[in-house]
Specification:
Bound molecules: iron/sulfur cluster
CATH superfamily of the largest domain: NADH:ubiquinone oxidoreductase-like, 20kDa subunit
Structural class: alpha/beta
Helix content: 25-40%
Shape: globular
Number of strands: 9
Number of domains: 3
Order of helices and strands: EHHEHEEHEHHEEEEHHHHHHH
Strand content: 5-15%
CATH topology of the largest domain: Rossmann fold
Length: about 325
Amino acid sequence: MAQKPKVAFYWCASCGGCEEAVVDLEENILKVVDAVDIVLWPVAMDFKKKDIEAMEDGSIAVAFINGAVRMSEQEEWVHLLRKKAQMVVAFGACAHLGGIPGLANLNTKQQVFDTCYRDVPSNDNQAKTVPGLDSTVDGHHLHLPVFWDTVKSLAQVIDVDYYLPGCAPPPDLIWGAINAILTGQLPPKGAVLSPNKACCDDCPRKDTKPDKIEISEIKRPATHLMDPELCFMAQGFICMGPATRSGCGNRCIEGNMPCRGCFGPMDDVYDQGAKFLSAFASILAPKDEAGIDKLLDQIPDPTGTFYRFSLPTSLLHRRKTGAPV
Ligand code: SF4
Ligand code: SF4
Ligand code: SF4
């Protein structure tokens, strides 16, 4: 019997949602299990690093890697998988663009540790302990990975063959990608496996999007009611749909929430946030500096709004703090 292609799933700095997305394949997961030999899936099965190290280079057909890369252990793993796999797919927004964990690039590692382990009021950490590299308790030695100052996308660390976008990628896109890989019907290397058009093109509200929009008040979903049928931008809510790749099935818009941009930019757009900002700046109603400042003050978190998923792969990459990049 012919050998089944070997497939690896791995997670780096991930919330686990991308792993859930694989499980969300429902009955198709049985087809995947039938068609391939899963050699690594830490969230679901007990494989050891030494099992992968012992494999021949290139013997894994495809490695799906989700999560951003922010620790030395993750760097070691992705280099190992790059060596062992013929194809690497960056799975989900964090691997593709840096994702939500990439917003930590606004801070240094020390600031992240201070917030998480020392300053949060719900912490009971009177000794102000933060994770160290080495510790010994009762003769047992523990060595932890190095936590970096800067969060990186997968392609900032290793060569990536394809990108499966989304937070998390939807099951139909995952299934389509697996099918394309199994049947060899893949686009050229480097492609994002989702249609190269804007969310607005597929949006059920696109006919309500005026040709000319003027924004004189910026509304927020947390503080304003949203019309369930009208284009969000026409209502004054920031919707990243014009600068975001389609293919998600308009998941947020169907749930009456503006697009936050998790599918990333279309081809040939380097910086999704800058692309949106240049369009957004042209539709602000005030034309004088004071009026523009007043309007922009209504956005409490500009980076988290325009670069929610893509800060590490943006032109700015991270806040300049003097921290290593
Ligand atoms: S892309 Fe979204 S679902 Fe996937 S690991 Fe990142 S935050 Fe979680
Ligand atoms: S801006 Fe948002 S709500 Fe309006 S058409 Fe585009 S995706 Fe739809
Ligand atoms: S609507 Fe936007 S944020 Fe929501 S899933 Fe689609 S691409 Fe992602």
